[in-house]
Amino acid sequence: MIIIITGSKGDGKTLLGTYLTHILHDKGLKVLSNYKFNKISYTKATIERLFMHILKDKKILNTVVILDEIQTLVDSRRFSSDINLLISYFALQTRKTNVYLIGTTQHFDMIEKRMRDNCDIMIECESFEIVNGKWIKLIEGQAKNQDNVIIRGTIYKKFNKVFSKVNTINIKAKYVYDLYDTTQVIKMDPMKIKSIMKKIKNEDLT
Q1: Beta strand 2-6 with 121-131: parallel, antiparallel or unpaired?
Q2: Among 62, 57, 64, which Cα is nearest to 2's?
Q3: Are 58 and 96 in contact (CB under 8 A)?
Q4: Burial of residue 120 (number of CB atoms within 10 Å: 0-12, 13-18, 19+)
Q5: Which of 130, 169, 172, 182 has its CA 20 to 30 A from that of 20?
Q6: Domain spans, the chain
Q7: Confidence (pTM)
């Protein structure tokens, strides 16, 4: 299953992805992540590891693969078609191997078309602060009191190639903050990816 979480900066995309990952981990799935988790065991989702599984046909089974800022891997504009095709192929295999691929991005159209076409669930995030009983929409997550922040996820499921709203969830952010590294910044250099791919194809990884 492919789940893409969208939202503006500070709207709780990573927080919601972390929340969902913990739920699936509690159900017995392993976790592969490109950012640091606290309180659960996980394996770092390095580019080498993902591409090795794709190119060498080594399956990732019964796992949550959580990729924060997924567009750094499957950018719809910048990266080569070979790289996008590889990641998209991996995403398609999730249906056969009990893998949940969760990705966060600010805009759905930032990720490669194959990934968008095969996305099962899209969740749009918004962040609010409850002040005197009123829900105040936050800009870039800036709240006066972080204990009062609520992350709202509007869930859309794809039916006949069209996303339809099916549910809404509200999460108290203060219960999730300590489950992951909230300061980590995800970046990826396209040239590094190409270099790694070359090494993998030459079977030169250590």
Answers
A1: parallel
A2: 64
A3: no
A4: middle
A5: 130
A6: 2-201
A7: 0.85
Q: What are the φ and ψ backbone dihedral angles of 4, each rounded to 5 degrees?
A: -115, 125
Helix residue spans in 64-189 (DSSP H): 81-93, 113-117
Beta bridge partners of residue 127, listed in sequence order? 151
Q: Is 158 exposed, middle or buried (0-12, 13-18, 19+ CB in 10 A)?
A: middle
According to DSSP, the residues that pair with 37 across neighbouring strands are 180
pLDDT digits (tens, 9 = 90+) for 143-175: 889 899 999 999 999 998 899 999 999 999 999
Task: Give the pLDDT of residue 94.
Answer: 76
Place of tokens 């924060």: 68
- In CATH, what is the architecture of 2-201? 3-Layer(aba) Sandwich (3.40)
| Angle subtended by helix axes 190-201 and 81-93, to nearest 10 | 70
Strand 63-67 with 121-131, pairing: unpaired
